[in-house]
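>> Question from a student workshop board

For tomorrow's exercise we were told to take the sequence and the ligand below, predict the bound structure, and bring the output to class. My setup keeps failing. Could a helper post the expected result so I can at least see what it should look like? The ligand is 4-nitrophenyl phosphate.
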Amino acid sequence: MQKVLFVCLGNICRSPLAEGIMLHLNDKHNLNWTIDSAGTANYHVGEAPDRRTIANAKKNGVDLSSLRARQFKANDFDEFDRIFVMDKSNLQNVLKHAKHDEHKNKVDLFLNVLHPDSHSEVPDPYYGTEHNFEHVFQLVYKACEEMRVKYS
Ligand code: 4NP
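>> Workshop helper replied:
Here is what the output should look like for this input. Compare the format with yours to find the bug.
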């Protein structure tokens, strides 16, 4: 069993999408993983995911409507086995809270699951178009599916 936390900036676009897709795969494959997401910023705490993220995920068969944003906290290092961040700025902000190497070793860029050592980022669709939201969905879905195969 894995305890996985996904992290982005606002916790309303990329990381709740990863959480929702992973919850969907969790149900489909009876994984019994613990899955959550958080933002490094507090701008959207308590809010549902961005309506464009919800609409696009729904079109692709994933329901995100019950998720609510929260901020990343240092205690998350103790609660989770793996912490996947969406971009390098999130990586820096999360690592600032790490107290020792055991914490640091739990953190990785999410797309390294798909392309090891590529250090590529999930682009932020917040200022983009529907096309960007669809692109992010497909990318995050592929990485979630790879993660399921790799870690289950
Ligand atoms: P996320 O996208 O980090 O994928 O949730 C963003 C959401 C909101 C903002 C920035 C990025 N914002 O500036 O409010």
